[in-house]
Protein: SET domain-containing protein
Amino acid sequence: MKLKVDLLFLVGISISVKSAFAFSYRALPAGTVNLSSSVQRDVYTMADWAAGYGVQQAEGVLLTSYDGNDYFPMTQSYIPAGSPVMYVPSDLTFTSYKAMQEFGASLSICENQLVQAGLGDKVPLFRIFFKIIAEYERGEESPWYPWLNSLPRVYNTGASMTYACFDCLPPYAAYLALSERQNFVNFQKAIKSAPFSEDIVKNVTLLKWAYNVALTRSIEINGERMIAPMADMFNHSADTEVEISYDDNGDCYAYATVDIPAGSPLRISYGDPTDPTPLFAKYGFLDESSPGTFCKLMHMRSEIDALGYTFADLLFYRENGAISPEVYDVVLYHILLKEDDGMANGFYGAVMSGDENTKSQYHDQYWPYTKQELQKHVDGTLRDLERWSAKAQSYDLNTHPRVPLILQHNEFVKETFLRVKANLDMM
Ligand SMILES: *[C@@H]1O[C@H](CO)[C@@H](O)[C@H](O)[C@H]1NC(C)=O
Ligand SMILES: *[C@@H]1O[C@H](CO)[C@@H](O)[C@H](O)[C@H]1NC(C)=O
Ligand SMILES: *[C@@H]1O[C@H](CO)[C@@H](O)[C@H](O)[C@H]1NC(C)=O
Structure:
């Protein structure tokens, strides 16, 4: 999309960011960002800094906060669909390909380790992580210092969770959160080969912060990871107002995807909103607007795979306790595999060929068994949820600050499961 930026935007003064990173082992310069959890984010200095470096915004767009911790952009003026909301010049952006140009061989050594650990697909994210650490190490000499100093210190992501947290979550959420943590552990190992100071590569607090920044603020475009300071402030929603794109020059644009009334938050999509758990594990928030949750049939994973379904197909709906049809298929296939191979094969064939008539004959014939199996699963999960939440409540909030989020997640699942139970019991 081509647009006349200057006609629509407030014009900022453009200064080019010259990055002069040269590798050497050295002591940390004074003035590295203070990562103490009690430090206030300095978001307004960052906004001035961004304007000084040529970031432009549509009239009426400003950063706002309900609680002084979380900030998000909103608009005080009407913005018509299709018009630009924000522009970030490429000089200011972090991208995985620019990190490779800047750090070359030193980065490759670390990346080989990631590849060996089976995390080749995380290489773009690692490059952003590396660049963030490099700029952190430069302290106030980094052109990005005001941006770094504006970022949250505390994260509720899976990578920040501990085994005590995983113990209080349903298996699917625990599994996703633990995978995030394992990715971080592998990043931590790989960065040891980088020519940063010992103070950096051994400091888990700092590395985890850099990982969380890279993970939660970058977006993926054509296999590359990018962060555009200021455009990284958009929050997630299932109903979005804004979309982000990059042009051939690497400049970042945010456009209005709908007519946006004055007073609206400006939000993008961080990922599939149908089930809140993957976003919970990755970003550390619960999207209460999600329509439902994965049905948590983790013990039927091989049946799910065999039928060609993904977890996102297998939903329980929160509003009315509805069950997606694929759930019944998986449960019935599980039952038939235990009882009768011939029947299992017949049912499998009907599902794979999309023969709805035959499928529903199987479903009718076995309905009492399917219902019983589902009730057993739902009742069992509800009991487990009580246990997990009771355990979370027994933790000290000072040492386990993520307990409220975990309880919120489990409550969302519980509400959904209770509605499904009410439906099942009446069927
Ligand atoms: C790690 O870095 C943080 C942030 O700079 C600092 O507050 C903390 O003291 C460091 N920890 C260690 C063990 O050096
Ligand atoms: C970091 O901030 C905390 C909380 O404001 C403060 O107590 C601590 O002294 C600061 N650390 C440094 C190295 O300035
Ligand atoms: C961002 O969105 C999430 C999910 O809807 C929500 O939990 C969180 O409070 C939002 N943050 C802000 C600052 O609005």
